[in-house]
Amino acid sequence: MLAYLLRRLGLAVLTVWAVSVLSFVVIQLPPGDYISSYIAQMTASGSFVSQQEAEALRQQYGLDKPIWVQYMRWMGMVMQGNFGMALEWHRPVSEVIGDRLWLTMAVSGAAILLTWLLALPIGIYSAVRQYSVGDYVATFIGFIGLAVPSFMLALVLMYLGFTLFNMNIGGLFSDEMAQAPWSWAKAWDLIKHLPLPAAILGLAGTAQLIRIMRANLLDELRRPYVVTARARGLGEWRLILKYPVRVALNPFASTIGYLLPYVVSGSIIVSLVLSLPTVGPLLLRALIAQDMFLAGTIVLLLGVLTVIGTLLSDILLMWIDPRIRLEGRK
Amino acid sequence: MATKPTRREFLRDAAVVAGGAALAGALPAVTANAQGAKAPEAKIGSQLIGKLEGPELVLDAAKWPKKFAEAPMLADMVKAGKLPPVEKRVPDEPMVVKPLQSIGRYGGTWRRGFTGPGDSENGNRIVSTDKILFWDYTGTKVMPCVAKEWKQSDDGKSVTISLRKGMKWSDGAPFTANDFVFWYEEVYLNKDLVPTRHPDFMANGKSGAIRKVDDATVVFEFQDPNFLFVDILAGSTAIGGGQATQAQGGRSMGAYMPAHYIKQYLPKFSSKEEVEKKAKAAGFDGWVSYIKNRWDWGLNPELPVLTPWKTVSPINTPTWVLERNPYYMGVDTAGNQLPYIDRISMTLAENLEVLNLRAIAGQYDLQERHTALNKLPVFLENRAKGGYDVRLDPALNGSDATLQTNQAYEADPEIAKWLHTSDFRRALSMGIDRDQLNETFWVGVGTPGSVAPAESLPYSPGPDWRKKWSTLDVKQANALLDKIGLSKKDGEGYRLRTDGKGRLRLELQTSAGAFVPHTQIAEMIKEQWKKIGIQADVKEMERSLFFTRAASNEHQIALWANDGSEVLFLFPRHALPLDPIQALLGTPIARWFASNGAQGKGPKDPRMISALELYRSANGKKTQERYKIAQDIWKILVDEQYSIGTVGLSPATMGVRIVSNKLGNIPSRQTNAQHARTPCSSHPTTFFYKA
Description:
heterodimer, A: mainly alpha, two-stranded antiparallel ribbon, 19 helices, B: alpha+beta, 30% helix
C-alpha cells in the first residue's frame, strides 16, 4: 500500500514536470512576446512606446534569450518558491494570484455546494418517482439550465438585476468594501454578493448531475440487492439512501479530480462577464498579454491541482464503493 | 444587442432633447458633423455636441491672486502641524487657472472605471499638467505649464525654460533645474536605462542636450535648428509628455525627475551592491527593473510628483486611488489651491460590458474612456435614472477605421503589384459606402471621408481633400479596375487574377479589442466591395498578433484608426510609415526611414519618397512653413490613397463622455486629441461637486 502511494507520488511529480514544460511551450507558441503585446495594448489605449524602449524592455525581461534558457530560468526560480514577476501587473506572481485564489475558491466552492445541494435530492427524487410530474418538471428545468450558456445567463441576470432591482453590477464586493482590509463586514459583503455568480455557475452543473444521479440510481434500484432488502422489510427511504444512493454517488466522487482545477479555472467566462476578481480572468488576460510567468504559474497550478484531485478521488472512491475496495484487497 | 428597438427609442429620446434645446433657444453650435449626413439620426446625434469651451490660464502676473485658500482636509493637516501653511506650499509664481463657469467647492471622490494595469493612460490623461508646456483648451495654442515661460532662440537651436519660483515636489522638496540635469545626465545618458537616444529629442539625427543656467532656468540645446521643439515639448511626446506618463510602464523619459528621491536607487550614488541588495529585497531581479518601478507614479505611492493628484492605492490593485497633491502648483483666480476634488477612485472592470453597464447605472461620475459609441442609445435611455448626461467630443483625425495598404508587401507578387497601384487603391476607396458605415457603426455622428484631418486645423489641405477619391462611385471604381487590367471576372462576378491563379482575394486584417469595432466594419466593406467585383477575406486576430504580423510584413491591408495624425508632426505613425514599432503602411519602409537607409527597404513609389522627404525637412522649419509641408504631405497621402479613410472626425475614441449631473465646470465640448491629452486640456483640477 505504501509502495503504491509512493509510486503514485513519483508519477505525480513527473506529470507536473511534464505539465510545466508543455505549458511553457504552449505559452511561447504564439508569435510575439510580452513586449509586443504591451505595445499593442498601449496603442489601443491611446499611448505609445518607441522602438528603443521596446528593445530595452526586451533585454530587461530576458525575452531576447532562447526559449529553453527562459524555461530553465523560470524553473530555477520556481524551485526556490519564487514564481517570478507578473509582467503586466509589476507584482510577484504569487501575490497577484494569492489575492484572487481565495475569492475563486469562495465562488466555486459556493457553486459546487449549491450544485450538490440541488442535484442530489432532485436526482434521487427523479429516479425514485420516475415519469412523475415532479420528474418532468425537474428534467425540463435541468435541460434549460444545460442548454443556456452560462455567460448569457450572467448577462441577462446582470441586466435584470440592474433594471429591476438596481443592484450593484459585477464584482464580489461593493465599492467601499473592495479596498477595505478583511473584517466581518467585508466577509458579509462577500457573502451577499455570492449567490448570483454561484447560481449562474452552478446551474449547468446541476442539470448534468441530476441526469447522472437519476440514471445511475435507476440502474441500482432494479438490482436484486435492493429487491432483497425491500423484501426483508427495510424502510423505503432508509433502504434507498443507505445502499443504491451510495453506489450511485460514484460519479460525484470520481469527478473530484476535475473539481479542484474547476475551482480555479472553470468560471473564466462567467467571471469575466460578471467582472469577478478571480483567477479565471487573470489567466485569460495573462495569455492575451503573453505574460508567461503568470500564465505558466496558473497552468502549473491547474496541473498540480488535477493530480492531487485525481489522487483524492481514488481514495474517496475506495471509501464509498465496496467493489473497488474489495478489488484493492486482492 | 438588437439595434432596432433601441434605435427607435434613441430617436424618441434624442428628439425630446432636440426639441427641448430648440425651445430653450440654446441649440448648440453644430460643427463639421452635420454636413454630408442625410439620415435624421445624424442631426440628432450632433445635438449632443456642444460648443468647444474650457478653462483659461491667467498669464498676466499682475492679475494673480496674492492670498491663498486650501481644501478642508489640508487645512486640518496644517492645524495638526503635519503640513506647512498653504502660502508655503503654493509656488510664488503659481499656475493660475480661470475655471470655466465658476469658482468651485472642495471635496468629493471622482468615481471612474479602469481595465487594469495596462490602462495607465486612464489616470495619466487626468494628471498630465506635469508637462513642461501644454496646449490651451482648443488644442491649438501652446501654453506654459510646469514652465512659467519659454523662449526659443532665433536660430531654433535652443529653447530656454523658466521655472516657477518656489515650486515644490509633492513631498515638499524644492523643484529646480537640478531635477532636469539629473534626468539628463543620470538617466537619459545612462546606457543601462536608455540604451539608445530618442528621436523626439533629436534634430537631424543628432541628439539634444540639457544645460542649467541657474536654479530656475534650463536650456534645451540642439546642434541643428529645431523649430518644432516647442510643439514637441507641449505634445504627448517622449520628451515633453511629463514625468507621470513618460516614466510609467518601464519607460525612462519625461525630461525631469525627483533627483532627491530617485538617487538612492542609482548605483552611482551608493554602490552597485547596495542598489542590487535593495532590489532583491523588494523581489526584483536587478536594480534596473527596481528603479523603473520606483519612478512609476502609478506603482509607487512614495514617488514625489508634480501632478495634481498622486497615487495612494497602486494601479496593480483592484482599485486605483489617487489623492490630492498638497503641493500642487495650480490655483484658481480666487487663490484657492487646486484641485477641487479630493480623490479619484478607479474600480477595476474585468470587461468592457461591465464597465459600460456601470456607467449606465450612474456608478461613474465622469467617464470618457471605454464608453462605446454604439451604446449611445442605451446611455441616453438611462440618463435620468443614472443621474448623468452624455456629451460627444468629436476627434479631429480623419478616419477611425482606416484601411492601411502595405506598401512593402511582397509575399504574393500579384497582390503586391495591385496594392502598389494608385488606381487600384482609388477604386477600392470609391467602392466603399461610407454613409452606410457611418449609420451603422457611428450611429450617424461621424463624418465620412478620406484620411485628411479636420478642416479647422492649420494642417488641413482643404475641404476638397476630405472627399477626394473618398465618396461612393461604383461606376468609376469599376472603370478604373477595368482600365488597369482587372477586367476578367468569374461566374459570381468577382475579378480574376492576371496570373491565372483564380479569383483575386484581398486579405483584410483586423484587430480585436480596439475602441472601434473594426472587424464588423471590415465585414460590411467586404459586402460593399462585391459591387466592384473585389473579394475580401476578413481576418480578425488578437491585437498583439495583429501588430506582430504587421511588424513581420505579412499583412496586405490592415484596419486601424489614424488617431493622433491630426497634428502630423507630433504623432505621424498612423499617416506615414516611419516608426518601425508600428508601421501598418510597411514596416520595412519605416525601418529604412528610421535608420537613414541602413536597414529595411526603401519605397519604390516616388510620391511616397517625396512625402517622407517632406516630413524629414519639417523639424528645421518655422510654424507657418511646417503647416504648408503638412498640407502638401496630406495632398499626396489622399491622392495616392495609401491609407483609405472611411469615417472620422467622430467621438468614437474617448469622445463619448458620461458626466454626472452633480459635477460643475464641465465643458460642453472638449478637444479630443492625443496631443491635448484629453481630458486634461479641460483642466480636471477645476471640476467640482456642486453640493
